[in-house]
Amino acid sequence: LERLFVKRDDLTGFSLGGNKVRKLEYLIGDAMASGCDTVLALGGPKSNMCQTTAEAARVAGLACEVVLYGDPPQDVPVNLALIRTSGAHCHFTGDNRRSSVDDVATGRARQLARAGRSAYVIPRGGASAVGAVGYHDAVLELANQLVHARVDSATVFVGVGSGGTLAGLAAGATQSDVPLRLMGASVSRTVGEGAMQVERIAAECAALLDLKATPALTEIVDARGPGYGKASAEAATARDLGRASEAMILDPVYTAKTLAALTRLARQGLDGTVVFWHTGGIGAGIEWAVREAGV
Ligand SMILES: Cc1ncc(COP(=O)(O)O)c(C=O)c1O
Prior knowledge:
Layout: E1 3-8, H1 19-33, E2 38-43, H2 48-60, E3 63-68, H3 78-85, E4 89-92, H4 100-114, E5 119-122, H5 129-148, E6 154-160, H6 164-173, E7 180-186, H7 191-208, E8 218-222, H8 233-246, H9 255-267, E9 273-278, H10 282-292
Parallel strand pairs: 1-9, 2-3, 2-5, 3-4, 6-7, 6-9, 7-8
Helix pairs in contact: 1-2, 1-5, 2-3, 5-6, 5-7, 6-7, 8-9
The structure holds pyridoxal-5'-phosphate (PLP).
Pyridoxal-5'-phosphate is lined by residues 18-19, 48, 125, 127, 159-165, 251, 254-255, 279-281.
């Protein structure tokens, strides 16, 4: 690589930070504009989205309930501890499939409606056109920073889970003054599934914003390693590199795997200016460091 920048969205300035903050700016706004009194967030017991949603709902004066797959864990992850202490109510589906939260949330929203309440259901990962608007804005913020740094083109490299982050970048990139190549490292889905999801949300986001240009193309690489949520030796090396060079905390599920994939591509000849988008995951990153130290 010629030059590597890091876009520090682990430092977005709200709760533990991370990419969910930019999505929630619009999702919570939409919930309030729709007159909802309760936000339903969906995910796993370690979900960054559910954790940040619980905090954002509380700050906005909305009730929050989270629907988590599986059973209450013995060892309580940082994110679950924060959800519980935020005052949000937790429902566990008792089913380890990630998709089990969808039906339970729909049922709970109906139940709330019958009780005269009104729930805003945020899809897993905040992957919706509304959430992606946060990253439509973010890519324009980045483009400005690149102009100031006199960069004339760059590759943006970001982790892909539910796909909303990369989708928003794709929707916004067509308005960037600096030509951007958008690359995603998929940590949970196959490359094909990830691409479909990103394209769908990007198109919906562009339609929502009434953008004339079709979203920019994105390239996705497989960064799953041994599987979703399972750390790899490559990821641990990337984690140590981030910590030793910039004192960044990287997590085993998203950011370390994304940096590991970027390192691999750089060895294979990826060139020019690259922006590694740090998307957060600080709770899991700290847990990983603590476990590693055997504390
Ligand atoms: C820390 C972190 N990085 C990256 C992602 C991936 O973002 P997205 O779901 O928008 O693809 C997520 C959430 O899924 C996340 O929590």
